[in-house]
């Protein structure tokens, strides 16, 4: 213990010099912290990152290139070092440039502290049918999860509601902005449906455990719930037709507005994606049948067993947002790496997928390490990177604007000193919507307050 | 039926442990991260009788030695998880606020598949702790993950005894709701938690006095044996380590002061998510701290947790370990240690020590494990690449010279297990209802409701 303390102090001195030098450099480049725990919005401008290793994701790596950011967009990406006049030059030597990472399923801004501060939770609305509940109206732009997440290189997330069967509509947000509108990339998409499952447990007897349910009973219950869900879709379809009919012929009786059904219309008509949370093979098959029967645009979220349903997923062109790298195998006799290897198995089977934390907010910053772990268990490294950049962008319908470094896309750009999926890598600069974001967070501010206390 | 199926497959997994070698093992040509003396390139490790016998290049093996080619691979000490509830059939005896008479060793399940999954993440030893429901909880057990063996073989011989303490939201039972007729348990405030501890130590001190008087023959009447106070007397006599769960800096500092008042040193502050706020005081007291690297905001008292906690404690010379408190997280503690390099800039070896040598010291077993050094137990992990790389996986995990996890063997066995599963499912007794079979019995899942804090296995939502 004593020896350890001495050795640690000696080593600290060396590290301290390096760290201090880095912090001073960083401090001169970024806006100073205003000491608040709010999410500082950074500053706009024209920036050129010069002489960096650029990883566009959708194209080959450029070993010594320049990326120019202007008017919130990526103006150019390419080899060479031509810097437009008036641009702020950022030396990229020894650094790598990546697109901001995207987490395609979180509760960002809807959840702050689940235990002990219930009033900070806005994930689960009461009732089972809340299609009109919109995450974009519940997200707290000043949540400290936002600054903690983005300084790890995540610039964009889907924030999704969670309660009941039809939980509500998600929002795609950039992790910057003082208002919900400032943050919004796609304000309303991704209707969340917690798809009814064959539940072999129901309730809990203290001291005994979960109560078992007969399989046939569980299957019958599930079918009834699916029928009820189908009825909601039929109602919404009929509602939309009545509205359309009235629009064409005002002599028809006026159909009263129903906010819940109204919200369903773009989803019922397959114009917008529905996110089905579903895990087991049998339940994924049922969800796919539902998607096929009603001709919907579906996404599977969770997807523990998705690789077992490859044929159907591919035939129906349904992608998977896989949220279970940090989960234990669902069955005791599963291989120990059953879920670590999930993305690799989906990749081999040709399923379109993204890797997601599925987290409420605080641990969304681990997104790169979820992808990295998938890489440790068979997913090619380039695919691991795509699984948290361009693939989630495609699934969220924003690949024309985000997910890669290409001219014309939103300037969500991250500059690192190493592989972005490596937990040892530091983020050195980052841009969201072309704004240079201070690398401060609730955590760096608490660190600064106490690091030198004696 | 289903239960039989699970049992059979578990038995097959257990067979992996049985196939492990005894006698000499020679690991050839590895990059060794010793955790004590830096990195040794291209070196061999000779294991004899469960101990590390030699570390050098070009060691030639005796006949009958098992030789493992580790060219291009990395070897580290086995990971030690200083806060675990793995293989425990019960976590909390939550009826009293002082349950020092209870023992974790009485509820150990050596066949918990979580042990095997932990081995597959490079974990070789763990401190198994009572839950945090009580100000003073039960007696802990220090185990090595010898999956497939009897429970007695798991217990680490000579490891100091320990006990769980807890402060804050959990012993206050903050999340508990009371229905008609139920009364809250004392204590309900942080004030009461501290007084519960003080009261117990005053009683223990009195009990010790009467024991001492009897031993000194001042009286011929021995005191009535007290199973609640005996472990507390051991704490007062420096023979039992206190592992104290807590979050807020103020209450953990109060515990250190209480310990100083009664003349003992706290072994570890567990979680200690605000330990960075009073690191100099911890260093002065001499307690270790065992933390989550970056969990936060899952409960109110975890809102000020920061990932720089490890760095600040390390800078102050405090012995820091990074634990999992989770069957899930246990499997990736190498990446948690890697994060210490990023959050503040702890050097590589010091980061590695936080999951190996430092927890070994906290558990009082560092003389026999925690680093790759001659004469220590051969508790080793062979990694596919540098263990701090996100792309690294464990190839083999060795406990006292025996291979308890081997990825290649595990993969080779899968088709056989699959075939066995199909065969079992086809048996009449396992047929689905309506096809001639009977309703399968569903095995009772483990009761997971009373685990600690960040243990949210698979339950992100």
Textual characterization of the structure:
The complex is a heterodimer of chains A (454) and B (461). Chain A has helices at 2-29, 144-150, 180-183, 215-248, 259-268, 281-294, 310-316, 342-349, 367-376, 381-386, 390-395, 442-450, and strands at residues 47-54, 62-70, 73-79, 88-91, 96-99, 101-106, 154-159, 166-174, 184-194, 201-205, 209-212, 274-278, 298-302, 320-322, 353-355, 413-416, 427-432, 435-436. With 454 residues, chain A is α/β, with parallel strands linked by helices. In chain A, strands 1, 2, 3, 4, 5, 16, 17 and 18 form an 8-stranded mixed beta sheet that branches. Chain A has an 8-stranded mixed beta sheet with strand order 6-7-8-9-12-13-14-15. In chain A, strands 10-11 form a two-stranded antiparallel ribbon. In chain A, helix 4 crosses helix 5 (259-268). The radius of gyration of chain A is 24 Å and the shape is globular. Chain B is an alpha/beta fold. Helices cover 29% and strands 20% of the residues of chain B. Chain B has 12 helices and 17 strands. In chain B, the strands form 3 sheets. In chain B, strands 1, 2, 3, 4, 5, 15, 16 and 17 form an 8-stranded mixed beta sheet that branches. In chain B, strands 8-10-11-12-13-14 form a 6-stranded mixed beta sheet, sandwiched between helices. Chain B has a 3-stranded mixed beta sheet with strand order 6-7-9, covered by helices on one side. In chain B, strand 11, helix 6 (249-262) and strand 12 form a beta-alpha-beta unit. Residues 1-21 and 444-461 of chain B have low confidence and may be disordered. Chains A and B meet through helix 1, helix 2, strand 11, helix 9 and helix 12 of A and helix 1, helix 2, helix 7, helix 8 and helix 9 of B.
